[in-house]
């Protein structure tokens, strides 16, 4: 269903309305087929504790190997599929795959980490989300504490009261929540106060120029201070240089994610990668890994 809600949608293509709708309908059909044909996979990007370089967990990032178009970026199809039933199916595929990967990691001796899963707005508001998650916890015999659910401000502001109810219920099960792309959406500090969240992710758009741009630097420092004062955990994404890492660490940023430590690791090579990087049960520094 190519439903259109006018103002609350955003489009990445600048063609006319007909082209946009046509493109979206085409994408929906292709996603359905791609799911059946196994063209989706996940890549996992490590999140490290800034002060110790221990691995805290991994963010699961969706990858679509399209037969003609090659690797399609999630930014090029996920926004188009919002509110589509296929995005919900795809989202459930992602969650199940994360459980499978977690079980695989546990089987090779790694169990003290989290996998962070991105949830689309459609998926977060889907009535079956909780029962689906509960069924997976039983099926895989895993704890909800092993998983963090990432939501964007865009998703949260749609219906704050309902979002809080959903989050409270899932947190009772043991899941934790991160606000992704923090500072880029329509958010206010009042909503931050009300949201039952655990982690704030500073968006990479602030990190990229943080050492050259005074405003970005101040925004990051203030965000870290605020998040810590609220008793929450703060993570910076898009950390690419040692200088950024050092500045963030010195200023009490808890967790680091970015190319400096590792690009997202394709799931096919994940267990090898983990096997190589564990020495005597401890994590080695991930610095300058060459995976894509
Ligand atoms: P995000 O959740 O904010 O994920 C972080 C993005 O930053 C990822 O892009 C990651 O590859 C990229 N990144 C990480 N470190 C660096 C760095 O040091 N430098 C640069 N330049 N980029 C870095 P990716 O994988 O292309 O994903 C884009 C977006 O697509 C994600 O942004 C997320 O919003 C969405 N997405 C990805 N997978 C899923 C999924 O399974 N479900 C949903 N609903 N959305 C997803
Ligand atoms: Mg994310
Ligand atoms: Mg993010
Ligand atoms: Mg981001």
From TrEMBL:
Domain EAL: 24-278
Protein name, entry field: GGDEF-domain containing protein
Organism the protein comes from: Cognaticolwellia beringensis
First and last residues shown, out of full length: 523 to 814 of 816
